[in-house]
């Protein structure tokens, strides 16, 4: 049998397209990144050939095929040969020949038989190379006791399998499989029944059963009752979509599980996948996501990096990012789908651009122990959950973390707080300015109070936790304080008082708490030094009493 080489030139061209499916789009992103292009319609045959070459070289190696492709994504994949049994026919053929001859000196008929077996599963080139190799080692092995022929054959097989020509043969086979699939993808572009459940544009591929071996997280095919639609053929997916899915591993991140980042617009998808492919190019291994152990931590880190590089706020304007964090092997299939709200993406991007240090301080509040900005890089790579990220993903407010109540200081600048209130909490600009204005009047009053009284008032607003009445009392006391001072205007009019207590948000329980957080932020921002000074004095007095 001749060496199998298929060229793409004689095929119809296939036009690739985005589908909205995370795995198929990831494969397309990989091919585009390898080609250095941005749009599917810019791809030509040469680009596809290059991508196939690139992928098959990696997939043929054990590091990819067994622990990553087979162990985490597409178990027993027969296209990209993620299957521990791939080399089985090679071992069987060699063992058979050795047992027949009881040595490595093969007769012509044994050689012929071995060639036939190997060519059937791989190609004649591999058969030639194996025979050449066995001949070259037969001299050295002639002294080895061949009484235990089973053991001897085992040893020889092991030697053969570790040779680079075996990896090269696997590589040729993967390449061939992908080229054939690509050829079928170019043919089956008419829409017929049943049509592809992913793209809906093509006929379902009939030549292969479509189970989790070639598209992650589908059923195994063993128990049809448990497979959606109980289709004995597997899922109805077209050759185009199956073909692209085979390239998905190249832009996947390998954390404890596999992370595929799906994003819209697709320009953003390419940007978020770049790092994975760059790592693959550099290390010839799947990207380890810079040592991150949690997908959302890694994503927020990437958002920061990309923002600082691109410096365009509108880049995130209508963006949508979803993380697919999964394991798919023969023992286990798990998937977490983590959607990142658009306003959160925009906020995190803005925070990284405008107040990176402030943002770090806020995120640091989310570690269980005390906030730690110094070890930030190390902590964000750890496996434990960060409360700030969790709250952002669950649409819960992170407003209380904009300041550090223990140290009575703010973590970030007012403009970051303002952006968060406007873009994430949906507070109107005018409302925010109103609250800030009230905050400034509070500060103006507090500043003029004797230190012990000032301290007491701040503590009152800090500890107003239970209900709105407690919060209201703070204002009433402060208004009285203000009347005793040489300040002509009142703290608030009656309308303003009503507004500050009830006007923010439908839920009365949430409304006043938002206001309280904003006011405390303003107080700490303006009075931090003074408050700390008072505290020190108090401590000194206490010590002297003791
Ligand atoms: Zn399709």
Top keywords for this entry?
four-stranded antiparallel β-sheet, disordered N terminus, two-stranded antiparallel ribbon, 21 helices
What does this 3D model show about the protein?
The chain is mainly alpha-helical. Among the domains are: 88-171; 252-396, no CATH class; 413-545. 56% of the residues lie in helices and 5% in strands. Strand 3 and strand 4 (333-340) form a beta hairpin. Helix 1 (22-35) packs across helix 2. The longest helix is centred in the last third of the chain and has 38 residues, at 508-545. Mean pLDDT is 90; it is low at 1-6. The structure holds zinc ion. Zinc ion binds next to helix 9. Zinc ion is lined by residues 196, 198-199, 202, 237-238, 240-241.
How are the elements arranged and paired?
Layout: H1 22-35, H2 45-59, H3 62-73, H4 88-101, H5 108-121, H6 124-141, H7 149-161, H8 164-187, H9 239-245, E1 253-254, E2 258-264, H10 266-283, H11 295-310, E3 320-328, E4 333-340, H12 342-354, H13 356-364, H14 376-379, H15 387-393, E5 403-404, E6 409-410, H16 414-424, H17 429-448, H18 451-462, H19 468-484, H20 494-502, H21 508-545
Antiparallel strand pairs: 1-2, 2-3, 3-4, 5-6
Helix pairs in contact: 1-2, 1-9, 1-10, 2-8, 4-5, 4-7, 5-6, 8-9, 11-12, 12-13, 12-16, 17-21, 18-21
């Amino acid at each position: 049998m001749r060496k199998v080489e298929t060229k793409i030139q004689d095929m119809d061209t296939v036009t690739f397209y985005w589908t909205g499916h995370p795995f198929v789009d990831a494969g397309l992103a990989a091919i585009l990144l390898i080609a250095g292009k941005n749009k599917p319609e810019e791809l030509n045959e040469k680009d596809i050939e290059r991508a196939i070459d690139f992928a098959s070289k990696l997939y043929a190696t054990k590091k990819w095929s067994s622990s990553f492709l087979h162990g985490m994504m597409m178990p027993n994949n027969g296209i990209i040969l993620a299957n521990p049994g791939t080399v089985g026919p090679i071992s069987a053929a060699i063992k058979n020949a050795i047992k027949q001859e009881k040595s490595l000196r093969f007769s012509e008929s044994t050689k012929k038989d071995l060639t036939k077996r190997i060519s059937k599963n791989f190609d004649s080139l591999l058969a030639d190379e194996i025979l050449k190799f066995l001949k070259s080692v037969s001299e050295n092995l002639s002294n080895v006791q061949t009484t235990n022929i089973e053991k001897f054959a085992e040893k020889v097989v092991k030697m053969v399998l570790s040779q680079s020509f075996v990896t090269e043969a696997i590589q040729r086979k993967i390449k061939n499989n992908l080229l054939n699939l690509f050829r079928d993808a170019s043919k089956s572009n008419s829409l017929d029944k049943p049509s592809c459940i992913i793209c809906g544009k093509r006929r379902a591929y009939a030549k292969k059963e479509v189970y989790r071996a070639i598209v992650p997280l589908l059923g195994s095919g063993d128990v049809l009752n448990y497979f959606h639609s109980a289709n004995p053929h597997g899922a109805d997916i077209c050759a185009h979509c199956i073909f692209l899915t085979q390239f998905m591993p190249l832009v996947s991140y390998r954390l404890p599980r596999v992370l595929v980042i799906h994003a819209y617009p697709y320009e953003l998808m390419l940007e978020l996948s770049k790092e994975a492919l760059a790592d693959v190019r550099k290390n010839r291994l799947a990207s380890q996501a810079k040592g991150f152990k949690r997908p959302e931590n890694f994503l927020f880190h990437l958002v920061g990096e990309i923002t600082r590089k691109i410096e365009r706020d509108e880049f995130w304007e209508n963006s949508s990012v979803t993380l697919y964090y999964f394991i798919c092997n023969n023992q286990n299939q798990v998937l977490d789908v983590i959607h990142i709200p658009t306003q959160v993406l925009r906020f995190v991007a803005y925070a990284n651009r405008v107040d990176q240090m402030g943002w770090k301080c806020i995120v640091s509040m989310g570690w269980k122990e005390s906030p730690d900005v110094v070890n930030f890089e190390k902590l964000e790579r750890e496996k434990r959950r960060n409360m700030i990220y969790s709250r952002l993903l669950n649409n819960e407010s992170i407003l209380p973390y904009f300041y550090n109540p223990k140290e009575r200081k703010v973590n970030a600048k007012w403009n970051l707080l303002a952006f968060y209130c406007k873009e994430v909490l949906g507070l109107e600009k005018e409302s925010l300015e109103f609250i800030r204005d009230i905050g400034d009047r509070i500060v103006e009053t507090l500043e003029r109070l004797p230190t012990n009284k000032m301290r007491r008032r701040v503590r009152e607003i800090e500890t107003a936790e239970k209900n709105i009445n407690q919060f209201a009392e703070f204002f009433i006391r402060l208004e009285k304080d203000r009347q005793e001072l040489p300040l002509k205007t009142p703290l608030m009019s009656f309308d303003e008082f009503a507004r500050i207590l009830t006007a923010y948000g439908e839920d009365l329980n949430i409304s006043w708490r938002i206001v309280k957080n904003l006011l405390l932020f303003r107080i700490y921002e303006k009075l931090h030094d003074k408050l700390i000074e008072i505290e020190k004095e108090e401590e000194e007095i206490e010590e002297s009493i003791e």
